[in-house]
Amino acid sequence: MKYLAISLFIIIPSLTLADEIPFRKSGLWDIEIINNDDPAITMQQCVDAASEQETADMSKRMSDDMCTKNETRKEGDTYISEADCTMGNRRSLTTTVTTGDFNSHYESIVTVQSASANSDKPDTKIILRAKWISECGPGQKPGQVIMSDNG
């Protein structure tokens, strides 16, 4: 679970700048997160416009608090985000390349480089793949995440 929290800390600020990257289609999304050579973590998330806006607002607050740079640009059908963020005494430079239509699928490739003094930590590569499955099921609430057994 610690891995998931760290991964989301890295991914969320660079994915949810509402001005740049479109919100996902409302409904149930199947999400796979691969961190370097670790086993994939899979989950499902029910989203709607309000939960997407809430995530974007949270991301902006995190970015404002922890990042000296968090910029996104669109090149063709690709979104490229670059962030320079510090959490505690750890500074990281993150580049995220996102493709997809956000209605049926999207993929983000996140490269994180440690920029802390005296850090010999290797770069981290995280791949996030998501596909829309269906409308949210009975009893599922927007924003709710359902972890698989491997999470």
Describe this structure as you would to a colleague.
- The protein has helices spanning 2-15, 49-66, and strands spanning 27-35, 41-47, 67-75, 78-87, 90-100, 105-114, 124-134, 145-147.
- By secondary structure, it is α+β, with helices and mostly antiparallel strands.
- The protein has one domain (2-22, 48-132).
- Strands 3-4-5-6-7-1-2-8 form an eight-stranded antiparallel sheet, with helices on one face.
- Helix 1 packs across helix 2 (49-66).
In short:
This protein is α+β, with helices and mostly antiparallel strands. Helices cover 21% and strands 46% of the residues. The protein has an eight-stranded antiparallel β-sheet with strand order 3-4-5-6-7-1-2-8, covered by helices on one side.
Looking at this protein, list some descriptive labels.
151 residues; alpha+beta; globular
Write the layout of secondary structure elements.
Blueprint: H1 2-15, E1 27-35, E2 41-47, H2 49-66, E3 67-75, E4 78-87, E5 90-100, E6 105-114, E7 124-134, E8 145-147
Antiparallel strand pairs: 1-2, 1-7, 2-8, 3-4, 4-5, 5-6, 6-7
Mean pLDDT: 83
Low-pLDDT sequence parts: 1-10
Radius of gyration: 15 Å
Major β-sheet annotation: 8 strands, antiparallel
Number of helices: 2
How do the strands line up in the largest sheet? 3-4-5-6-7-1-2-8
- How would you name the oligomeric state of the polypeptide chains in this document? single chain
Number of domains: 1
Shape: globular
Share in β-strands: over 45%
Would you report the number of β strands?
Answer: 8
Element-by-element helix/strand order? HEEHEEEEEE
Distance between the termini: 7 Å
Helix content: 10-25%
Q: From the helix content, strand content and strand pairing, which structural class follows?
A: alpha+beta
